Amino acid sequence: VGTGRVAVLLSQRGYAMTGIDVSEKMLAVLDAKSSTVEAQLADATDLPFDDASFDAYTIAFGIRNVTRIEEALAEAYRVLRPGGRFLCLEFSQIPAPGLQWVYDRYSFNIIPPLGKAITGDADSYQYLVESIRRFPGQDDFADMIRASGLERVAYRNFSMGIVEIGRASCRER
User: How far from 22 is each of 31, 107, 117, CA to CA, in Å?
Assistant: First the structure.
């Protein structure tokens, strides 16, 4: 759930939301923002929910921080009802190599020093850019989603591919 921003926005639109995180501090941030989102301490690779118990599974800027992404995707498939929707908002790769090179130079040379100047913490911002660069490109991530059992996998790039929304649906079992 991270800071819970997406879960809170969806709950404000009337959706029943359950947010999970492995960090009690992140869940406290969510609790301070919303009393309508149920917060649970859990790992995305071992969800404490019954099979086929959710109509949708969303994750925003978090799956690249999961150690075993394939296991998290398998868990997403497991907890989705047939016809359920999977949505993943994540940083990604720019499909144009020249632009990716420019973006990498910016990311590694500007973002950590800027983070240090603003927050006093360069290490978190260094981790951020490294985790983004290690995350698979759009087509490779789509293949990982398909391998989990989800179908009708597609993605849409935003900001030239800096961010993508991956989507899929759970097939009938």
Answer: 14, 27, 28
